[in-house]
Amino acid sequence: MSINRQAMITAEWKRGRVSGKRQITIPQKFFEQLQIKDEVEFSVQDNVIIIRPVREQTGSDQFADLILADLIHEGYAGDELLAKFREKQAQMPKAVQRIIADSKQAALDHKKDQTEELFGDVMED
């Protein structure tokens, strides 16, 4: 991400203070305009601190290449591939929730090691 200097010059600016604990208050107008919930991300670009709201991800970028590879292997292409990819990515949060629930249950049932049973299909040989 590069900083657009002209946009910075013409942007609306608000002044704030930094507390002794390095805390700042985001002006209400900006807070509402960006629909900030309870978290923000920080980055530094060209000596400028960038603050942006954290957005929920609809899928996991880590698995995007695996999803695409599977769909291509299944014969999808073009617009059909894109539609199916979006559908699969939308299913990721529920899949992750199932994995977490299964893992919690496995921890409760710690009498036997269920790692292979739960994760055998994704474990390296």
If you had to describe this structure to a student in words, what would you say it looks like?
A hairpin with a 2-residue loop joins strand 1 and strand 2 (48-53). The protein is built from 5 helices and 2 strands; from the N terminus they run H-H-E-E-H-H-H. It has helices at 5-10, 28-33, 61-73, 78-108, 115-119, and strands at 40-45, 48-53. The model has no long low-confidence stretch (mean pLDDT 82). The chain has 2 domains: 5-53, Pemi-like Protein 1, Chain: D, CATH 2.10.260; 61-119, no CATH class. Helix 3 (61-73) packs across helix 4 (78-108). The chain has 125 residues and is mainly α. The chain is extended. The chain has a two-stranded antiparallel ribbon with strand order 1-2.
Summarize this, please?
The protein is mainly α and 125 residues long. 49% of the residues lie in helices and 10% in strands.
Topology:
Blueprint: H1 5-10, H2 28-33, E1 40-45, E2 48-53, H3 61-73, H4 78-108, H5 115-119
Antiparallel strand pairs: 1-2
Poorly predicted regions are: none
Structural class: mainly alpha
**Relative strand content:** 5-15%
The end-to-end span amounts to 39 Å
Mind telling me the C-alpha Rg?
22 Å
Main sheet makeup: 2 strands, antiparallel
Overall 3D form: extended
- Helical proportion? 40-55%
